[in-house]
Design goal:
By secondary structure, the chain is of the alpha+beta class. 19% of the residues lie in helices and 31% in strands. It is built from 5 helices and 15 strands. The strands form 3 sheets. Strands 3-6-2-1-15-14-12 form a 7-stranded mixed sheet. Strands 7-8-9-10-13-11 form a 6-stranded mixed sheet. It is globular, with a radius of gyration of 17 Å.
């Protein structure tokens, strides 16, 4: 396992936020394929035990993944979010958080469609359900409130990605800071990115960071060495009232393997 964390546990008043597409299981003929969950599970555990984010946004998570995440983070963390199909089965866009640090005030899961309150509903060109999990937190130590939005946009439909981005921007609160985490299936120079950041409502944490502690790696290396200045499809976006101190794209191996075909994206930030 990598010896030193890139960011590690946050100290008040800072918050450590991570987004990770944990990669749904796919059958492989090769027993030693790096995508196999039994090979990746120790790496996911090692990553989370070392980094210990205050808030973690997951994508493509199934019960097997969630059990590993919860074990690695131990009982001090809580998880919200359910399966994307009828609120019971399918991939989760779960939010995990350090309950000793954060008090959960409210949360919601909704479909990214014209019928957001109908679980499992589709629309806008996506053939499978796409969801958004949002949560309102209070920092137990500073008293500050903030929101987290976690999502996974469609991989096929550009229209769905655009409509989803517009819907999320419309939901952003006016009175509290907010983080938006996710796998957006669009690069950082895309029209989807501009929907989120073009009007100054949100900032890409990588660009806003006081320090970038890694190279600007692409976030979808697919179990290969990462590319410098590669395509970033996993982002953490923040409202302007959040000061991003440090940002990383974590391409490290843990217990000899990569946790996922995606690279975790992490930041350390303070609420102004």
């Amino acid at each position: 396992m990598t010896g030193e964390p890139l960011l590690g546990p946050a100290h008040v008043p800072q918050l450590h936020v991570m987004t990770l597409n944990v990669r749904h299981p796919t059958p492989h003929l090769r027993r030693n394929h790096p995508d196999r969950w039994k090979l990746r599970e120790p790496a996911v555990s090692g990553l989370l035990r070392l980094e210990r984010p205050t808030v973690l946004g997951l994508q493509e998570a199934l019960p097997m993944h969630l059990a590993t995440v919860e074990s690695a983070l131990d009982n001090g963390y809580r998880r919200i979010g359910t399966g994307r199909r009828n609120g019971r089965v399918g991939e989760h866009c779960a939010i995990c958080f350090d309950e000793a640090r954060l008090e959960l005030l409210d949360w919601r899961q909704q479909a990214l469609s014209d019928t957001p309150d109908i679980s499992g509903s589709t629309g806008w060109g996506n053939l499978i359900p796409r969801i958004l999990v949002s949560a309102l937190f209070r920092d137990r130590f500073t008293g500050r409130r903030f929101m987290v939005f976690n999502t996974h946009l469609d991989h096929l439909s550009a229209r769905s990605r655009m409509r989803s981005a517009e819907a999320i921007v419309d939901m952003l609160p006016k009175d509290v800071p907010a983080f938006v985490t996710g796998d957006f299936n669009a690069g950082h120079r895309s029209s989807v990115h501009r929907v989120f950041t073009g009007e100054g409502v949100l900032r890409d944490s990588w660009d806003a960071a006081g320090q970038q502690l890694t190279e600007p790696w692409g976030t979808f290396p697919g179990y290969r060495p990462p590319k410098n200045n590669g395509r970033r499809i996993d982002w953490i976006l923040t409202t302007p009232s959040i000061t991003v101190r440090q940002a990383v794209v974590n391409t490290g191996k843990y217990d000899g393997g990569w946790p996922s075909d995606h690279a975790p994206v992490q930041l350390m930030a303070e609420l102004e």
